[in-house]
Amino acid sequence: MEKTKKNDEGKKPDWLDLIAKPMPKFDPKKDVLKVLTKIRPKKQEKKHNKKIKKQVKKARYVLSGGAVILNVQKNTPYYLLVQYPTYWGFVKGEVEPGETEEETVYRETFEEVGISDLQIIPKFRETQQFYFKIKNEVIRKEAVYFLARTHTWIVKLSHEHLNFKWVMYEDAIKLMTVKGTKDLLKKAHERVLKYYKLKG
User: Mean pLDDT across the chain, nearest whole number?
Assistant: First the structure.
């Protein structure tokens, strides 16, 4: 009997076992998605997906043109970044009726940063596509980016941007927070090194 008492006294209660166990890591994206999936019935989920597909099909198409602008000093390329309210990126704007993509780049560059001597580097044209909503209207925006060289460091910033910086590639990547913009700069930088025969 004494042995039994000792064993019972030495045994941890169930609630202590629960406390001792580490809590599983919470992944907001996966776990919230699981909860939403469980809450929404399958029929309702199908209707929701159909609604989204219809909105995407009816989305208004908007084309914009932009440029990764650079200048070179002592065999080192410096890239011009402009600051938007929530991120650092490149000069860009909507293509107006009758304009070519290149003409938009020249116009937007002059309007946004006051640069008028751009030289577009051949064999570089990258596109990005994304969807967003404005007042319940779905918009499909396609942004076309060129690579362009300038010989001036003087920037006259428009009211559209908060700030600007001439930065080397590594510093530009650190400033950027949008993956698509980082990927764009990586491709542009590779092209610059090859075109001007510079060392990375």
Answer: 83
Q: What is the chain written as a DSSP string?
A: -HHHHHHHHHSPPHHHHHHHSPPPPP-HHHHHHHHHHHHS-HHHHHHHHHHHHHHHHTPEEEEEEEEEEEEEETTEEEEEEEE-SS-EE-EEEEPPTT--HHHHHHHHHHHHH-----EEEEEEEEEEEEEEEETTEEEEEEEEEEEEE-S-------TT-SEEEEEEHHHHHHH---HHHHHHHHHHHHHHHHHTT---
**Does 54 score more than 90 pLDDT?**
no
Domain boundaries, given as residue ranges, for the chain: 26-58, 60-195
CATH of 60-195, one of 3.90.79.10, 3.40.190.10, 3.30.70.330, 3.40.640.10: 3.90.79.10
